[in-house]
Fold this sequence. Notes:
Chain A is an all-alpha fold and 295 residues long. Chain A has helices spanning 7-39, 42-48, 60-67, 70-102, 109-121, 126-136, 144-147, 154-165, 169-177, 182-193, 195-211, 214-219, 228-240, 259-288. Chain A starts with 6 loop residues before the first helix and ends in a 7-residue tail after the last helix. Chain B has a domain at 70-187 and 360-395: Periplasmic binding protein-like II (D-Maltodextrin-Binding Protein, domain 2, 3-Layer(aba) Sandwich). The longest helix of chain B has 38 residues, at 2-39. The interface between A and B is large, with 79 and 88 residues. Chain A: InterPro entries: MetI-like (IPR000515), MetI-like_sf (IPR035906). Chain A: It is found in: Cell membrane.
Amino acid sequence: MKIKTEKSTLVFNAAGYTFLTILSLLCLLPFLVIIIGSLTSENEIIAEGFKLIPDRFSFDAYRAMFTNPIQIYRAYEVTILVTVVGTALGLFLTSMAGYVLSRKDFKFRNGLSFYIYFTTLFSGGLIPWYILIVNYLNLKDNYMVLVIPGLLSAWNLILMKNFMKSIPDSIVESAKIDGAGDFAIYLKLILPLSTPGLATIGLFMALAYWNDWFTANLFITSEHKFPLQFLLYKILASASVLKTNIAGNLSPDFKPPTETLKMATAVVVTGPIILLYPFLQRYFVKGLTIGAVKG
Amino acid sequence: MNRKIAKRMSAFVPLTLTAALLAACSGGGSGSGLSNNGAASPSAGGNDGSSPSASAPAADSGKPDTSKKVELVWYVLGDAHQDTPKVLAEWNKRLEKDLNTTVKLNFTSWNEWQSKYNLLLASGEKVDMLFASSWADFYKYAKQGAFMDLTGLLPKYAPQTWEEVPKDDWDTATVGGKIYAVPNTNPEYTPNGIVYREDWRQELGLPEIKDLDSIEAYLDGVKKGKPGVTPIGGKAWNEVYTLFTDYYDFKVYGGESGVIASTSYDKPRDIVVYPFTSQFEEFVKRMKTWADRGFWASNTLSSQTEAGDLIKAGTGAVYWRNAPGAGGFITDVSKTNPDYKLGYFPYTRFHNYAIPTLPMANAMAVPKSAANPERSLMVLDKLRNDPTYFRLMTYGIEGTHYSIEADGKTIVTPPAGATVAKDWKNYDIASWGWRYKPNMLDQKGSWEGLKALNEEFAAEAKPNIFDPITMDYAPVKAEQAAVNQVIKQYGQPLMMGLVKDPDKALETYRSKLKAAGVDKILAYVQEQANAYFDEKGIQ
Lengths: 295, 539
């Protein structure tokens, strides 16, 4: 059976879709400029600026980047490894902690929650953190330093806890009556029921790991351990140092990367993570609302 | 069917949008997440955890003991070259044989190198030697006790360097009577100046550039004679700002974010706030006429384009460079645009004297927390003075990165006879800290004018009396931040002639500076500078 659509609804829908499509296209524009910029010839950018339709296409930037692709491949490996391991481990820890905190029969849950929440308000700051990792944990220039600090974040924990609170107690109770242990309940019941929450937090974590260049900047010194984003920042930073007073000391051979190379690097680095979104989209809308209540 | 596709499409597009938004948000999120974790860490003090043997030199004379194998950690600024691991492997092979030592050379990269540098020194991490410089806050850190006192160690562990570095150079590395760093030995002149299109000047019959009027005539001639060319393209701030300070011989304190200056080299104690001088008034009026005649674009302050790139693209005519930088740029252009002819006018010719860079502008220092300062100094001694070591670490591997001409003093890059890729890069790391003039090689094909310029500068050199004055502005921090803001908001547009009425804008600028508390900074700078001049006996 076909439901008849009113004419006014039809017009409204048409107008709405057109408007949203135009708006979305406008939002895509900057990214398009990056892609096209990476394909334009360098001289044209300098002389005439960025254009949507360049006079001459050129693959020089990509060629330059992939003449020595080992570093990029290597950086991809590091980033993917860190993201996968970090997200999987992080999700496991976050969901376990969240589950414990959401159980009403856990006596210290409020105190512990506050203890965790407290760290979002007051943090030790950069230098103590640096000293802890370098001098006490001896993690300098170690892959683990890229993974460990991001494993548990107070914000994700609170999100997880609130999400799990929405799972009715009776489910846990019934499982208990059937003879399931705490870990079995967590693994067999709570986890499957929390998929939207897990997907959202997983996405947050994956993004945080993927985009994290700061930890690598501070702690990683060996070139072959650089993650992808740090490689990108390194290229951009070497361009901006020319504008500071150090420029006088740099050797005359020091050449900043060309505009096109910057764009091409951005494309290569952003590409994969954008593809992740469509797959997680269906969890995403649902997941977003779980952040609505905090604390 | 069509509708279905349309529906899918329209659902997809906003989704991508959200994706982009979230990608942007999460960048900040990851940072805060990290500091959250940091919160749980115990707050530790300065140098605990690692109080290594900062042992004074052993009493025995003669050769230092190298029987124990040691691995050192060194830091320099900037990025490694693609082949750095190969070079280091070679270096370590030699070091192990000669000194029973290996060095792990780390690079800070240019991302936030200042905060990283700060962390290295503040955390007491085990670093045996790192790059230090007057512009990287050497004097501040030395005063705070971040570096190890090398006075007693140098004669024993770096005897050759100790002999060869002149006393005056050691003085610049001395704070409170103690030597805290080994300055480089490479007298250099880096005065401001402009690179310009000499071929256009001749073609258009313009006067030779030798003073401010001829610069103006050149800019005007190019603007009129070459349609489509903006004489100073892109960001013209450097060109104009340095023209101001050097033309009137103002010696500005605190870089371009400062407004306090000595009125000239000969009157260092006459310290003023330069926007209040009649010279400044004269200058901004002149710049107003320059801007109106289109010598630079009206968006020049926000432009991120390098004027040099525009010269290469054929739409620019003037580029600010210091003398060695000009040499590099002119060499570069001779490859990309062989039909161009470029000239260089150093601003030193306004007043006919040049100031060499401070030896402490590039140096190597040992942090307080170093585990093996003795061995580190021995390596440095070897690195500076042994040509094979020096060449390896400065120019790379012979045959792979360079070859030496028959005269033994000139290097060729890429090496003679080698075929290299289009984007081949010279071997180049931040080797500034161990520069030692007798070991440095000239590069073939570099701009010949630089040699003549250096001779010109050396002949008219005056001692560098301004750079060693170090101020941390701690007591006037708030005022300084306010003044910086005023400079950006009112000062820069005024100096670039981008205001409607210069008289009025100047008045506003002055009153805003007063309101921001510039007098307090003036008093602070006067006090600090005069204290230094008293100490050194400069009148």
